[in-house]
Write a structure and sequence with these properties.
The chain is an all-alpha fold and about 130 residues long. The protein has one domain. It is about 70% helix and about 0% strand. The longest helix has 30 residues. The chain is elongated, with a radius of gyration of 19 Å. The termini are far apart.
Length: about 130
């Protein structure tokens, strides 16, 4: 099946975009668990910015990082649905978009075999910050 034909597989595209939407909600919940926006207003500077992480438990940091890992990984599937939509209109733009998607997939595979996903270094920094207090 040629990806550049005029017919679109709307069932597959809808499924991929739905997965992306649910993954985005998962990432939102991951950030929400951390309590973004809840800061100690009596502090200033960097201490104020990191004050919300000083009272979190280890389990909260773990689940936030885990949900972020799952959500960000699943968001990548959504890009294949967007690629199919772009491919139906422009081969040139679809090729550029596909190279970015494949770069993202390569990064995800490297992350599975020893690398790190973005939520983990961020949560690790919060975890370490609690003990440097």
């Amino acid at each position: 099946m040629d990806i550049f034909d005029d017919t679109l597989d709307w069932k597959r595209i809808r499924k991929l975009l739905t997965i992306g939407l649910l993954a985005g909600c998962t990432v939102f919940v991951s950030d929400w668990i951390l309590g973004y926006g809840v800061r100690d207003s009596s502090l200033s500077g960097l201490e104020k910015k990191l004050s919300q992480f000083l009272v979190l438990s280890d389990a909260t940091l773990f689940w936030s990082a885990f949900l972020g890992l799952i959500g960000i990984s699943l968001e990548g599937l959504c890009y294949f649905g967007i690629y199919r939509l772009i491919a139906s209109g422009s081969r040139k733009h679809a090729h550029a978009f596909r190279s970015g998607v494949l770069r993202r997939v390569r990064f995800k595979l490297l992350a599975l075999f020893g690398g790190e996903e973005p939520p983990f270094p961020i949560r690790r920094r919060h975890f370490i910050q609690r003990f440097l207090r």
